[in-house]
Queue: 2 jobs
Job 1
Amino acid sequence: MTVTDVSAPRPGVKRFIGVDFDFGALKNASPRYWAFVSLLGVLLMLGGTAWANALAHGGVVMAMRDNYPWGLWFTNYMYYVGLAAGGLVVYASVHLFGAEQFRPLARIAVLQAGVLVMMALLGIVTDMERPWRAVWMLLTPNPTSPFIYTGSAANLYMIICFVDLWILITGKGGEKLAHRMTLIALPLAIYLHTTTAFVLSMNKSREMWHSAVMVPIFLTSATASGVALLLISAYILRRLGVVELTASMFRSLSTLLATVMIIDLFLLLVEILSVFWPTSAMPGHTVRLALFFNSPYAWAFIPVLVLGIGAFSLLAPRGTRHLPAIQITASSMYVVAVFLKRYSLMAMGFAINPLGQYTPPYLPSAVEIFLALGILALGLLIMTVASKVLPLRMPAHDPHEGHSHGVAEPAAEPALASGVVAP
Amino acid sequence: MSKNKKPARGSTPPAPEKGYTLSRRRFLEGLGGAAGVLAAGTIPAFASTLPNTTESGTESSVAPGGENVLERIIEEDGAINYPGKPVYYADPAGKEKWAMVIDVKACIGCRRCVYACVKENNIGRDSGFTYIQVLEMEPGSVDVESSVLDYGEGGDPDKWYMPVQCMQCAKPTCVYGCPVKATWKEPDGIVVIDYDKCIACRNCMVTCPYFARHFNWTEPSIPANEVNPKVPYKEKAGVVEKCTFCIQRTRNGATTACTEACPVGARKFGDLNDPESDVSILLKTRRVFRFKEELGNEPMIWYVG
């Protein structure tokens, strides 16, 4: 295949800002595709209704209260921002470390990162009682607030991801500009996760979060869950025939994933150990972290350990690491584990308030769940439509020639594509 | 927390009383001092890195650095992020430095301060929070982790009670944490919130170690004949609010509603700049402590036992 595959004028292709949007592919899409899109549309409408409800009635329709001032939206903010990391790490490793095997993933990785950060920011906007007041963040920013840093970093990161995608698709500036963009984007990604961790860790009022290890944990959890999600979406997009990827690429991705996973688990165990060790245990901290194990939050946290260690054990043996089933199972386990970790970390920091009063677990209300589902549906919708409309296939520099021949058009039917691509 | 009579210069710090372990803090202060020497290489630098914040602020309680603790706190208790315009429902700040002293030995846990505060400050009757939270403590320790907030009406003579509200900290983490400067410290030390600017991110509630800030999850509702016209009411929907030392009263020479309501006189409110005020005399003559002093927020409410 060549560049002309995606850039040659075909019916339904509209060229806009130098990108060929293949709207014709939507016309040929299968009923299954449209069924999925309409399901997402329904979820999106439910989310919109939930938001209207929240704006009309205020925070009382949420399950958050003074004891739990942040809820599902903040869990999702941390989670989505973290998931976005993986994409960038993979994209950057192509340019910075010459990991050519990841090159076919570059466009998907960057698109996914941008969409995820957009979802994270939408979570904040939909939580605000008066979203228009967000303009004060620009007019009178307070430099001592971590919110300023993580908020601006997320916005900047989202913009950079979409600019990056545009550069990758149009090829403007060539390899040199793509390389330079990584030099901006990678430090910015680290900065984003660090400042997100600061939102929790920079609070001497909340013993459970007040630990410097939060920053590296955020970085590793972000990278591990992000790479895991990228691996899953790469499998999905390969099956749908949007991109063609080699088994060796998946194997490299799995090795990277296993490495980050074990560092992530290690940091978590270090934190738990230093909280409970007799010479370091401080009552305010131990009673809060003990909730991990002796309160209803154990239902959220024990699975973090089980899924995390389980996922690593699946990927650790070299002999079976190349099996798609193993890779997909381990990745899914870790993506779930990191969500539960974010949720329990957030909610448990609040479970005992600074005056020592315990409140039962925070469980999101229907409005919060529909809001989150709506945002998720929007993200998936963008990815679903983009997989048809945008030229996500990396055209050149593919060293694995053998695998890139004879593959269906990007716009091909899923059934046909998977028939050709699936090994 | 400390012996208020002439600790000899250069002697070891007075031993902390039960319930407050300050040895780690001392150690860290020592580290800070050592770092100061390394950084500045001068003896004055060494002295200035040893703020003796645990002293009670008596005239004789002179920190190793030679400064009066109370003077330093009064000095620090100034405007932070002050936008230059006073809150619209109160007079501009004067020269005072407001502070409160609460006598936990006298407090009987009757919660009359809580009720008076709710009425005075237009707190929604079904908003689910109060500015003042009275903690019921077991004898033998100052341990909030085992304290009870929802104890039975009237209080138990075998327990002791510690009312907690916004401490109007000299180093307020809430003001530092607000991303949009919607909350600030007035020149007289009162921490206030601009209800028309708050973006409802609730970060201040997370950063406050005293759980003093509360969010209006629902629109506040008050019976029409009980609304206090001097205090904002409907504009508090969907924003954070907190104790303001009754700014609408105290700036006009009155005392706070909670001080007025206390049947046992456990609360004293006044101006630290006035050496004859109740609070100044109490801080000079009594042994006092501050809640969570180890966090370094420099709260402006002292407790005396």
Note: The first strand of chain A starts at residue 13 and ends at 16.
Job 2
Amino acid sequence: MEKENKAKEGIKGWINPAKYGKFGIERFAWILMRITGLGLLAYFIGHIYETSHILDGKAVWDASLEMTQTTEGHIFLAIVIGMCVYHTGNGIRLMLGQMGYGLGKPGRPDYPYKPKSLNMKGKACIYATIGVAALAMWYGMAVMFG
Amino acid sequence: MSELNQEISQEKSQTVLSPTKSVKLRISRSNPEVNSEERFDEFVIPVEKYTTVLDAILNVKSHLDHSVAVRYSCRQASCGSCGMKINGKPALACFTKVVELNTDTITVEPMDNFPIVRDLAVNFTRMFNNHKKIMPYVVREDSEIKPDTGVKEILQTPEDVDKYIQFSSCIKCGLCNSACPTMAMDTSFVGPQALAQAYRYIADTRDKGKDNRLKIIDDSHGIWRCHFAGSCSQVCPKGVDPAMGIQLLRSYLLGLRD
């Protein structure tokens, strides 16, 4: 069992930046999905904690809202917007893939064996999702910073 | 067709070779039976236009250090024995030309996510067990050809064959399992190799074992652990595209295919 555990890469297999140059944009989309998922989970827990202050009276509630009315707070919220948009967009792409859409049809492979499932449609969706997330962050910041 | 031929004829190398061209080969050395240390031994190897990484390693074994452990057999990307990490990316050593790497230093390491036997040789037991688990054969009661009962060949159209033929090219080299980020965290994950093979048999119109196979892979360490990072397909040397097989397999479990 000890040997077996040593055989897996562990967290290195996720975060090693050298992987992303070698395995393409799909691998980058995957790690970004993980990071944004964890980020949104953390935000969700923090959000529940923050909104629970409403039970402590108006003064405490107003003070907790003030935390996000700073420059750092605005940047934090812009990141949350970006995470939300990316996770949603990429999640839709993955769900469509899991339903069998956009993967291409199986067939006889010809050299040089370019995988059909990692096609330009999928790559374009990833780039578009990152672009829309960046745009949403920019718009959010424009609103928050006036 | 002409487009395909053009791609085949393209040489990826930008390296201009001289008769004295040589590269530095860094080989990972370790022996878990003795200790947990890993070191890199360096060798300078002469290369020619068609020298493969496996040729370079065998050159080291022939002339410089016979103790390097490497598994190989066919030398033509058919047996799936010589998978290893070449400059960080899983690949078949016999299918990777040195000049294609466009570097003067080549680092070879054992594949990730497999227990190391010694140096570049890894243990395939878990992968083969997972492969066996998904019943990698056509399941049907009348599969035997019995002339007296009138059972003959089971006919398939070319379209039927196209549904699974690419997945039957798998040579069990383990590169997909090595590249998979889920395998990196979960040693119990059935892996892209076995999942792609499960699809290969489920998509075969002769097969009647779909329900049993789907039960096997519909597990907490089964198909739902795949998150479509696509690295398995990126490294497959035979065009199997395991990521496609896994997603198509999911559509069976989601009830979108019969």
Note: Chain B is about 30% helix and 15% strand.
